[in-house]
Each structure stands twice: as C-alpha cells, then as structure tokens.
Amino acid sequence: MTKTGAEILDSYCFLGTNREVSIPKGQFADVILLEYTGNHEKMSPRLKVLNVVGARPNLPKIAPLMREMQRHEAIEPILVHTGQHYDENLSDVFFRQMGIPSPHVNLEVGSGSHAFQTAEILKRVEPVLLEHKPDLVLVVGDVNSTIAVSLAAAKLGIGVAHVEAGLRSYDRSMPEEINRVLTDALADYLFVTEEEAIQNLLREGRPRGSIFMVGNVMIDSLRHFLSLAQQSVIGDELGLKNSASWRRFGVLTLHRPSNVDGVQKLGELLGAIDTIASELPIIFPVHPRTQQRLMQSGIHHHPQLRLISSVGYLDFLCLLSKATLVLTDSGGIQEETTALGVPCLTLRENTERPVTISEGTNLLVGTDPSKIVGAAKDILCGRAKVGKIPPLWDGRAATRIVEILLQLVPRESINY
Ligand code: UD1
Predict the structure, then answer these.
(1) Is 289 exposed, middle or buried (0-12, 13-18, 19+ CB in 10 A)?
(2) Is the distance from the beta carbon of residue 390 to the nearest atom of ligand 1 less than 6 Å?
(3) So what's the pLDDT on residue 416?
C-alpha cells in the first residue's frame, strides 16, 4: 500500500499522536511516500542520523534539527563539524547561544581553495562515516561542506537528506550554485523551503516522491530565539538606543566573492553605502573575507558607516529585527528580513530565493550604485515594500523533517 504524504499526515491525526504536523495538502508537492508502518517510535533499531555543519550559515539551520532529533527516542543524532569555519565569531558563539551540542567529531579542515577544502573534507569524513555507520547523512545549505560530505556518503551507499534543497540562482559563477546542483543530484530526501524549488528539482529530473515542502529551518531558529535576541545589549553598546526606543539605522553585510574580491566593485558598493550613510547610520559587521579585502584596499568610508567585527547570532538577529533597512548579499538574510517584515535590498543580480521577492520584503537591486541609493531613499521616505510570510515559514520545519525521516529512512540497511 502506498499513501500520499498528505494522507500519511492525516494518519497522524487519526492515530491521535500528540505530535502536531500540519502541511497543507496543496503545499506537499504530491509526494508518494513508502508504506505507512504505524508507530515509528516503537520501531527498532534507532535511526542513526549523521548531521553536518561546516560554515556559519549552517548553524542556525542545524540547531532546530538537533533539538528536534534529541526529543525522539527513536533517533540517534550525531553531529560532525568539518571545521570550514573555525573562528569564535563564525562558529563557537553560535553553538553556545543556540544550545547546539558539541560536535562528536571536528574534521578541522580550515580555510583553503575550493578544491582543497572539498577534497580534504571528502578524505577526512570517509573514515568517520565508516566508523559511525549512519543510516542517513543530513546536510544543510550550500557550502563546500554540504557537497563534500554528500559525495562521500553517496559513494558509500548512505542515504543523504538535503535541507534547503532546490534553490537555484542559475548563476554558475557562484560557488554555492555548483554545490546546490551537485548536492541535490545526490540526495535521496530533498527538503524545500519554497514552491519554486520544487519546480527546479523536477526540471532536473529529481523524483517527485523525494521532494518535501517543509518550510524553513532557519526561520525555526529565528522564531525560537527572537525574544531572547531582543534582550541583547548591542543597541546600547552601539548607541542605537535612547532609553527603550531605537534610533533609525541600517544594517549592511557583504561577503560574496563577486562583490568583495575586486577592489573596484567593493569601492563602488561602499561609495553607494556612504551616500546612504550620510542620512542613516549603518552598522556593518565585517566578514573575515571582506575584512582582508578592506585592509588590502585602503578604501575610506563615511563616519556613519560603522564597521564592527562579525557578531554572534543573538546580537545580529536583534539588529536585523530593529533595522529600518538591511542591505546584503547574503542568501539567509534575504529570508530572515522577509520573516521579520524588515525591508531588504539585495546587492546582487540574481537570487536563489525568489519567494523573498514575490512575497517578502526583499528587492533585488543589483550592484549599480545609483539604483542602490535610489531604492534606499524610497525606503527612507516611507515607500518600503510590504511583504507577507511565505507558506510554512512558521517555526515548525524541523518537526516536519524529523517526522518524515522517521517514517521513510530504512534503518541498518547498509552493507559497508
Ligand atoms: C563560506 C561559504 C559561503 C557562505 C559563507 C558564510 C562556500 C563555498 N562558501 O564563504 O557560501 O555564505 O561561508 O560566511 O562554502 N576565515 C576566517 N575565519 C573562519 C573562516 C574563514 O578568518 O573561521 C577567513 C579565511 O581567511 C578564509 C576567508 O575567511 O580564507 C573566507 O572563508 P571561506 O570559508 O573560504 O569562505 P566564505 O567567504 O566564508
């Protein structure tokens, strides 16, 4: 007997479990799932899931998944850190603030070229997979660690789940786009955050039954931590607060190689930001890649453009949630601003997250200085785009993912 995903979810209600899983049927991409086996909590053995993080944006995505997996007796979660990011502000602070358990293994791969990083992770993770013999490897996002571990797992015949699958910028000059396409080609379980990702995966020939619309785990973290984040003292430290009320300010992040690696492009972008900063103080937490380029270039900036070191998750979420305007080239921040209802200008020519444009507060302004300044002035004059929250960005994506994994992933089936 086969059941559709929606029917299986109906079965949960019918069985009267106390778990809440609600996926509107229209959102479920008509997936055909395996035979429904009843109460999975009583099935044995436990489902061993090896979860992977490597770089900063992976951490808010893995946090709710680890939390959810730890709630289930039937799951044995293992966490592997590749060490792609290793600094306190890019890694450790996120573990502490978000309560992510310490990794069982750190591959300590460190920085290097794409080929070096990917190859080192491949080499170093294989013995870990052979030792732990997981039933499934779960990867998130689109960084080098995502593709490297997926490839090592797939070659060993281990199932791969990709969380945040199907996003496409259709720009192969972005290293992340290559990582996305390859990871999705290898993954057996494709968890998507928005409708268009489903179409992208189907166009690439991925089977319908492996695609699951579940919402957005990064927004799970945002919802979970927002009230705590708003207790941060960063507003006082940066002089953005007058007693309890916040002044108007903007937030800037820039770290894409296409924007920061060339001095001319970086100079042009910062020139546009300077013009905006003459009207609105802008806080710029500087990524290490950008920091290196700024030090080499000697570019000057407006005094109201305030460069600070990278900040931890809670401080950054606090700043985002209180900002009048966010300028960014990050993928995740386009989604976070949409979830917060904060106007966002994306300084790129394309986005792999189109729902933030069609439904959210995001505007793709590109890198032409006059367009950036014009769009920022519109927002400052009260003509900001009003968005709405995309479907299923409700804080319960990790719950849905774990339920589906418990239902579908075969246990101890691999011959190493
Ligand atoms: C990586 C991801 C990118 C993600 C970004 C978030 C890939 C291909 N890129 O880019 O998708 O948006 O992380 O930050 O996986 N460095 C430090 N401390 C660290 C790590 C790096 O100072 O903990 C410095 C190193 O000098 C390194 C540079 O930052 O050379 C860039 O780091 P790297 O991991 O190569 O790429 P990111 O630009 O961070």
Answers:
(1) middle
(2) no
(3) 60
